[in-house]
Amino acid sequence: MKLNSWQRIWVIGVVLWSISFALSQFIVLQEGGGLDPREKLELRRELALIESRPTEPADSSSPPPGFILDQPDRAIWADETDQQRSREIQSRLDADQSLLRRQAAVIWLRFSIWLGALLALYALGWAIAWVRRGFRGTEAR
After folding, report:
1. Where would a tag sit more exposed on the chain, N or C end, judged by fewer CB atoms within 10 A?
2. For residue 130, is it within any domain?
3. Please, which residues have CB within 8 angstroms of residue 51's CB and are 6 or more apart in sequence?
4. Which residue, 26, 12, 9, 35, is CA-closest to 110?
5. Is residue 42, in this structure, part of any structural domain at all?
6. Does a structural domain hold residue 4?
7. Which residues have a Cβ under 8 Å from the Cβ of 124 and sit 6 or more positions away?
8. 111-135 pLDDT, tens digit each
9. How far apart are CA 6 and CA 126, in angstroms?
């Protein structure tokens, strides 16, 4: 297949634009500020450990080792901080998931723009070459 000058310009444009597109997507993913996979795994393990603990005492007459007696007539479950930590962990995991969805949407939008621009550039070059061939005489065909 022989490439004419417009197609050669288009190929060079595609290569240069593809490199810049790939670099920009890499930067978007690196600047995301999402959770490190190891950190995410540790948070999920901690969340599973917290959620596996019982939330109510088995017998209210004698508090088990999870209770703190702050008043003689009332026992407070000692994992209130665990529940708070569970909410914090879940919030961080949800925020990370939301960030990944937003990053995917940005990458998909940029990819669509990139592909559309490349196709438009090719169509423009093809149209200009077609018009140019039309202005040549029949002897050049």
Report:
1. N
2. yes
3. 86
4. 26
5. yes
6. no
7. none
8. 898 889 888 888 888 888 888 888 8
9. 7
DSSP, collapsed to helix, strand or coil, labels residue 77 as strand
Structure tokens at 10: 């288009």
Helices (H), the chain: 5-30, 37-52, 80-135
Asked whether 28 and 103 are in contact (CB, 8 A), the reply is yes
The pLDDT tens digits of the residues spanning 23-45 come to 887 877 776 667 777 888 888 88
Domain that holds residue 51: 36-55+64-135
User: For the chain, what is the domain count?
Assistant: 1
Residue 92 lies in a domain: yes
Q: In what helix (H) or strand (E) does residue 70 lie, and over which residues does it extend?
A: strand 67-71
